[in-house]
User: Fold these one by one.
Assistant:
Number 1:
Amino acid sequence: MRERIEKLTELVNSLKCKTDKEVEEMRVRLLGKKGEITLLFEEFRSVAPELKREFGQKLNLLKKDATAKIEELKAAAASTVKGAASAGDVTMPGEPHQLGSRHPVSIAREQIVKIFRKFGYDVAEGPEVEDDYHVFEALNFPPNHPARDMQDTFFVSTGHPNPLLLRTHTSSVQVRTMEKSKLPIRVICPGRVFRNEAISARAHCIFHQVEGLYIDEGVTFADLKQAILLFAREMFGPETKIRMRPSYFPFTEPSAEVDVSCNICHGEGCNICKGTGWLEIMGCGMVDPNVLEASGIDSKKYSGFAFGMGIERIAMLKWQVNDLRHYFENDLRFLREFSTCVDV
Ligand code: PHE
């Protein structure tokens, strides 16, 4: 009996079965009703009493090992079957990966930034959650200006003199730049802004801006006009014309609204420019002396200009997108139209 136990132990230790079927056959051979191990247990009844202890232990161990081994082989066989099925035909060509592409707002922002970098502007960024001081106060907004109203601004905290809010323009970054930079300053501030507006084809409560600021001795409105003209030609093509209409912003004086000649009808009048031949692209003006002084800049010595544009709007005009909401809906059919866009 000792010999048979030893032989079976050896067999169990070296067992190798690949398929489910082989494992099952082995289980029946060893542990089935008439299995070799089962038979040994039957014979064990007639073993001499002085040998019972030794054989009993050996038999129990053998049964335990055999059961564990069969379980292990069963699991291994099952996973190879699964593995083989999911691998399929490994010689088949792979499934194509869909490549993502840049969002049109990112493409437009990068184009705008690139143009101004070429003109020598630095890029500055600032916090989206700002305080009243940097968004309004330092920019010469009187305390009761309507833009401070809950209608236009998302307040994060109220009830104290300098509440936190979501910035409504990136002019706040210009204030931060004026506070800490040495003169002259030539900077653009791209970023996300927030206004409490109803969402429509032409307005959204979240959008993106690039604002610019240039401060030095002797900067004039002529410099502003030239900078905007150069930008417009780089962005919309060398034939582009600009015109300026008087406007009002608390932080610039004089202020203007800039239009570019319609790049669809070239001034003839079409439905994009609503028959006028012109498209509005930005606000601008000479920095109000109060704004310079608020940030510690001597307004008798220095002057400057500022401008600000909505990136979505520039992108709409450039690529004739007729609904602002397309930019936020992530419809792949829309986004894919920009997948081959190359830089200016
Ligand atoms: N901050 C203005 C806006 O958000 C744009 C602007 C910037 C106008 C600088 C004039 C000068 O609409």
Number 2:
Amino acid sequence: MSASPERPRVVVFASGRGSNFLALVDAVRSGRLPARVAALFSDRPGCAAVAAARDLGIPAVALRPRDFADRAGFDRALFDRLAAFDPDLLVLAGFLRILDPAVIEPWAGRIVNIHPSLLPLYPGLDTHRRAIAAGDARHGASVHFVGAELDGGPVIAQASTAITADDTPETLAARLLTEEHRLLPAVVDLIARGRIVLDDATVQLDGRPVAQPLQLRADGLEPG
Ligand code: GRF
């Protein structure tokens, strides 16, 4: 995204609680993130994220998949509604649907997802339980550019935490979520400033390829 004098317009997609959406809104409203959250899009009109957006005066567009003949029709209808908000960047944050590659394709390099694992480990669901069951020493979250594959696409940055002997999927998820709330605004910040771009399937930071995902440390994102 070129660093335009206008703050980039971000549309967030969420299906549930919306805490990552709220973390982005908080970063924008406190002046830490030079962007605008233009709208919240959802596939669940009754979810907490939609209610939170409306409470905050942020437009919410929520369509019900069952009102459409098929998955592709729903995805098309939802993405058709984006034009009204003229977004520069789409952020999937707890959006629990697999999107049709046909709607993603025009957004290549302008759509990111936050996933609760150290990708490429554990795409899909139930990541916290799977990391504990595998005996992993660390678990984490990744923000990646969205490609055609589920939780695929080049990883931009990760946050991680040690798995302790008494961790349950719930304690691990809760600890990681606080890291997600720092990770996502930090990545969107780099994209909003035009410092992170996707160039031919390679993540570039300040014009140089990022060989390893950036890592979230106490002071922010650092080289991996
Ligand atoms: C987060 O763990 C995110 O990584 C995953 O779904 C969860 C969404 O949480 N994709 P919230 O709705 O942002 O609170």
